[in-house]
Amino acid sequence: MELIDKNTTIPQLLRNVVKNIHSENDTFLIRKVKDKWEETSFKDTLAFADAISSYFLEIGIKKGDRLGFILENCPEYVYYDQALQQIGAINTSIYPTLSENEIEYILNDSGVKTILVGSPFLLKKIIKIADQCPALIRIIPVFDDFEKITEKIDLNTGIVSLNRIIEEGKLKLSEYQKTIDQRRIEVIPSDISALIYTSGTTGTPKGVMLTHSNFVENVKVCLEQIPVIDENETFLSFLPLSHVFERTATYHVCCAKGCKIAFAQSLELLAKNMGEVKPTVMSCVPRLLEKIHDKAIKGGTSAGGTKAKIFLWALDTGQKHREIKEAGRSPGLLISVKHAIAEKLVFSKIKEKTGGRLKFMISGGAALPKNVGEFFGNLGIKILEGFGLTETSPVMSVTEYHRQVYGTVGRVIPGIEIGIQDVETKNFISVQTHATFKEEFISDEGEICVRGHCVMKGYWNKPEETAEVIDQNGWFHTGDIGRFYKGNLQITDRIKNMLVNAYGKNIYPTPVENTYLKSPKIEGVFLIGDKKEYVTAIVTPNRETMQEIFGLKDCFFDLPDTFIDDEQIVDWISQDIRKFSSELAKFERIKSFIIKRNPFTIEEGDITPTMKPKRKVIEKKYAPAIEEMYLGMLETE
After folding, report:
1. CATH superfamily of the domain spanning 10-210
2. In contact, 429 and 444? CB cutoff 8 Å
């Protein structure tokens, strides 16, 4: 029986699950409170949602009103979202890491009426700007002891805890239940479900209008492309629900399929939580996988001797076994025996640290370096890659479970078209759909464009900006450069990131940076070279590795100098810069670099909440150091 059709909306998903898949008393949400993991059933989730909806109706919330969130992932996010979705309000989530000015802009641009706040720190942020946000009528902390923060503050808006709202809503539920049920029926697929403000590497944030149809169709076709996801999965959620990737790939998928969602306590406790929850599926970002890769390599080889030889032998065996299976052949007896030994001695120990039950992980948000994907494949941990943007709700393509092409982001999802457009001529080089897939198809490179059910309704209150990215034929222009490789989509870089050197050579930073990121010494690379004769870079070292090698204390990273000029450290990094440069064309190779003491951060304004570098900001901010680096190169020529 099809549980999702063209008329399904977000608030209907969970009710479909309770009606057709799970008992209402089965567990849906899991979170850790002190030392214990606590469970919430589907029944209680929907009851909390109804109570909150009742309160919303009591204070006059209407269909189309924008209701805000600024909190980390937790069950309360789900209760509040389910409550507003079923009465036709619009989820307006805000990254907790944004500055007060950015938060104020989003609240006023969207006209948010209520905002759910996750911590005392975030409440203080909201209080500072609340009186400059005239549409805001309720601030809703998820914690009860907020009076300590607000007792001496006079605000134009009311502050009520979520627990109090649930209590009051339950008292009024008999009065509003029929209205809630009717409002749920009146929500239609073309209604806006969410406003998600793009962080953007330049310019003012824009509110992306995503409809119920955008989200539901995206979930439906992704489940078709990854049919191994079933109602017994446990997802571990740690990527922010304020971002479209986690919202769709974890939250909405679980609402549609009835999977459990366990909320990680924090990024720092993620490894511990994986061992406790034992998830079967996780959404993640490439940087997490890179760190797991680096730690596993270091743990397996640092001791040297027999242990390192066994580890490297196991990886080599895993690679051979994987390549035979990917070629569609059955491994012979000898390689199967070797692989079983490798599994017992090495792979099982690494898998145990993830909880030991992972079916696969879904990587998104940025390109996963090919060598990292292959590493996990050699271990027998499947990494599925997907591609999309906030404006595409988000998935445009995703790896099929049974067919892996490392270095690509999967097959076009059903129901949409992806075109590759020549950047200069604007002619389409190739247009592919799910149905036209051919395993050996390779196209030339160009801008990736998409048309179909995943494309946003537009930017909130910005028709001109909408017209700039969605052309008259309905094609959304992503600004990403890519091609089709072996039938799958492959991302090269962003058009705005492209560097053109002094000789007119086009250089896409991402693949070049990923080449150098193979080094265990290097945490980050920011490529420089637009209109320059040579390519240079700002490099951030792997802190843990550098501390071990040079015996550095933590206070070394608190020194006021932004850049490290210690000759020994510079030489140490130089060894790997030279080593990996051999894999690149001469005009792509880093000729000089400066070492940044600490990574770029959101707080310092160097990167977006989705960890993308703000190229113009970084180049301007560190211009004196960059200029000095280039002058030093001239002096040594």
Report:
1. ANL, N-terminal domain (3.40.50.12780)
2. yes
